[in-house]
Amino acid sequence: MLSPTLRGARRSQEIRWALSDISFTLQRGGSIGVIGHNGAGKSTLLRLASGLTRPTRGSLLVTPSTASVLSLGATFNADLSGSANAITAAVIGGLTPAQARAALPRALEFAELDGFEEAPVRSYSDGMKLRLAFGVITLMTPELLILDEVLAVGDVGFQQKCMEHLEMLKQRGTSIVLASHDLQTIVEQCDRALLIERGAMRALGDPASVTEQYRLAMQTETIRLTPEELAAQTDRLVLQKSRFGSQEMQIARVAIGPPAALAEVPFGGRLEVTVTVGPNPRREQIAVSVAIVRATDDVKCIDLNTEMDGALSAAPSGDPVTIALRLDELELRPGKYWVDVGLFPVSWAHAYDYHWQVYELTVTGVRDDEGTPVYRPQQRRWTIDGPGEPA
Amino acid sequence: MIPQTLAETVPEPTVLVAPREVRMPPRQFTGVVLHLVKRELDSTHRLTVLGWAWPVLRQVSQLVILVFIFGDVLNLGIPHFPVYVFSGLLSWTWFSSGISAATTSLLDQRYLLFQPRFPATVIPIVAIAFPLVDLVVALPLLLVMAVLEEGVHWTVLLLPLLIVLQFVLMAGLAWFLSTATVFLRDVPNIVTVSLIGLFYMTPVFYRLSHLKNTTYTHILDLNPLTTIVEDYRALLLGSHTEHMPDPWRFMYVIVFSVVMVAIGRWFFKRNAALLIDSL
User: Fold this and answer.
1) Do A51 and B116 touch (CB under 8 A)?
2) Cys-Cys with A111: which of A131, A177, B9, B130 at CB 3.0–4.6 Å?
3) Is the ipTM value over 0.85, yes or no?
4) How far is Cα A323 from Cα A292, in angstroms, rounded to an integer?
């Protein structure tokens, strides 16, 4: 009479370790970035670090005063106003109700809700919810702050503000654990980085080299999965040469430039990259990346993806989708560039389809050979068009 | 809970330090419970047209049904029947809605378990405190009914003590059942079935003296709610009721509740660190 799944679970003797052989210490005021594919064990590690769960084996020392944003937004009640939810979130975060009410204005000021403080959270965008959650976080000065991919949503200006707040906390002695797919943030924000792969510690150390190792591992996996042949090959896209990835899903078309242009953008001008993603029969969640690489020396000047900007969080319907990235002031030095476009599963374990050195971009203007800084354009916007686009 | 095979394959652990244990002063604990109950009320009544009238209407409609069936269709011959039923019904409704909400409270609000600074013990307590508001809101109506029928006895002032006792009893059950539910998802079903049975084993709409067989009376006396429900009436109506509060039965309920709360709290604390992995 027992349900089959339960009987199966009872019988199963196979053990799968979510995490094993991971060892690190975090000093007061230090910060560590945790990277790895989705499903590699990051969330488990963060839960352990919050003291929420116990390791089966091993030892763990957690400070008594921990604040986390593992899921602060999840505590929001959609029918109640932003300010009511902020008070509750602060109470859940460890303040007394009286303290929470007193501190409310500070949280709301940080969140910049522009007059929507009393509107039900149901009407908020993801970005507003995130800002509100982070506003509540700023009310606390914990010994350890754990952030899970929370900075992913929200505009660049707000991300900057959050970073400044984290910097201030660090100077006051708060240690920070930050899990993110945004490798750039990890490099900028953390003293060290920890790479987790299938529950094991792959690397621990300098953020720049650890993130590089992560990139390389993903590339290796992608190359391994790239098939030898494909029915419809074009001249520009040759497997194992300019096209990589498992090809389970494909990028159908890429257009560059302001519409109908010759992939030529003046310095400081507007650039649009439009990516059409082929059928998605399994309706999986996907991420699209756009990187701009200087042709002369392979320096990656811009590296953006939909996930870090929270642009494509839900799975679209099975039909093709068009994803457009618009950069308003392209401050790239005049010269030739490659626009590399990639399509990924949200696990980021490998690429479905990656077009490498296929699409050219010329930035025109007075030639100026100073080094191009790697930078993140402030004005950027993703738009997604397609049937059944999630609300 | 480590599977046997796992314990064999892995070397002995080093010392384990600091699993989560959120300590909160009782004052703050109470404040948090009240805040969350208030939030629950806000979100429940905000979007309904009748708002606060609903808890009263729900209980009155149930009263009308019981009074119709057992006062008219099958007349049990209990004087002042509406007041008799309503006093028992308020206590029962609090118990049954509180316990069923508490049973699934950890599952329903699992997101709260992921908050490192939040003491998880609060969650089942909020679940049982919320329907207490229904009782408090309906109490004035009961008092008015009692006054119109036959007058209220001064002992009604002792009612808060009885409410505290019932709260303690429910807290123990709530901690125990909510934890058990996380590990065995059949528990809510067991609770639902048990509550249906328990309703008929509690003298809400009948009298203990209706039972011809004294064995049944003794079985019903084991149910702490029997005494609690009868004592609500005794305090409200004083000498007008059949039974005066029996000190021995009352002592039994106190001991039962205190033991239950100790067991529930122990069970909850013991399993607190394992809850998240089973959610």
Assistant:
1) yes
2) A131
3) no
4) 17
